Structure formats: structure tokens, C-alpha cells
Amino acid sequence: MTTNIEYGHLLVFGSVMVAAWSLVIYLWPRLLLSVYKRALLAKGFGGGPIPVNTLQTESQALFADPLHPPASASSLATTGVNRDTLLTAGWLDLRKGPLVLHVPDMAGRYYSVQFTDPSKNTVFAYVGKRTTGTQAGDYLITGPGWNEAVPDGVKRITSPNNGVLLIARVLVESDADLSTAYALSQQIQLLKVESIAQR
């Protein structure tokens, strides 16, 4: 009789632990993404907040010495100390309509722009050397349910969510190459659809 009660307790305890771990595994990535979003919008890379629907590139000084970031730097600035690619980041809100991502001609240089759906913490699209090449380009980023015409010469990227975390990386080949890579990173921009139509 005692053995049956003990097995019953173990079964209940095991079920609770499995449910708790499943919940942690499910919620942990979303929690981390929420912290990342707050850091991005409040402090950026330490140079002040990054407003929604804008992009900011980490400073050359932060890239050059990531182990000693300025006091104003957020946790975003020191996440995954990186010594080969400059980071550019931004949080997109597509509820008011689509945005256009403009990338400059990278002349063969490695770069990537990653689009993450924060509701599922999954990457749904990439723009970059391995997927779209290194020539200059414009990409229309639309939310779910958007069905209007895409401007000529612009490729469409459909987001499954109106919220998008955008992270761009541009290769820095050497210390002497930092200023060139930084200039290219700053040319990765978000534009309004009207500005593309006026070109």
C-alpha cells in the first residue's frame, strides 16, 4: 500500500516537473527576446535609444574594444562579443504599413540581414551575400495580410507578425577595414514606401 502511494507521488512529481520544464523551454526564448527588445529600444548600443522602425549600428569604438564597453552601453551592446562583424539592429512595427530595407552595394563583402518573428523567436528571412548577393537592393517588408502592389525593382519579404527584430551584420576584414565596414553598415537603412516610389 505504501509503495503505491509513493509511486503515485513520484508520478505526480514527475508530471509537474515535465510540465514545468516544457513551460521553461517554451517561454525562455520569448523572455530573452523581450529583454533584448527593451534594451534595444531603451539604450541601443549605448548611444541612446533606437526608436521603433529605425536602425542603429554599433559604434566603431565598441566594436574595437567589446570587453570594455562604455558605461552607457546596454546588455545588447555586449551580447556575444563579436570581433568579425559589425552589428546593426532595429525593431520594426508594421501595423501602420510596410517598410523598405535598403542595402548598399557590398562589392562582394560578406553581410547578412536577419529577420526574426518575436512571437515565435524564429528567423523567417535573410538578405545577404549567401541568399541575395552583394549588389545594392531594396526589400519591401510587409506584415501579414498586406496585399497591395509591390513597387518595381523591389523584392518582397512577408513577415508572419507585425513585430520584427532586424539584425544586420557586416564583415570587418581587419582593423584597417573598420571605417569602410562601418560606412557600409550605416547605409543599411529603413525607408518609407513613398520614398522608393519617388526614385
Description:
By secondary structure, the chain is an alpha+beta fold. It has one domain: Immunoglobulin-like. The chain is built from 5 helices and 9 strands; from the N terminus they run αβααβββββββαβα. A 5-stranded antiparallel sheet has the order 1-2-8-4-5. Strands 7-6-3-9 form a 4-stranded mixed sheet. The longest helix has 41 residues, at 2-42. It starts with a helix and ends with a helix. The mean pLDDT is 83.
Summed up, what is this model?
With 199 residues, the protein is an alpha+beta fold.
Number of E-state strands = 9
Distance between the termini: 82 Å
The strand line-up of the biggest sheet is 1-2-8-4-5
Average residue-wise pLDDT = 83
Total of DSSP H or I helical runs spanning 4+ residues: 5
**Multimeric organization:** single chain
Reading off the top of the CATH hierarchy, the class is best stated as Mainly Beta
Overall spatial form: globular
CATH architecture tag: Sandwich
Work out the count of structural domains.
1
- Assess the beta-strand content as a share of residues: 25-35%
Order of helices and strands: HEHHEEEEEEEHEH
* Structural class by SSE content: alpha+beta
Helix content: 25-40%
The radius of gyration computed from the alpha-carbon positions, rounded to a whole number of angstroms, is: 21 Å
CATH topology: Immunoglobulin-like
User: Which segments are poorly predicted (pLDDT under 50) over 5 or more consecutive residues?
Assistant: none
Q: Largest sheet, described in full?
A: 5 strands, antiparallel
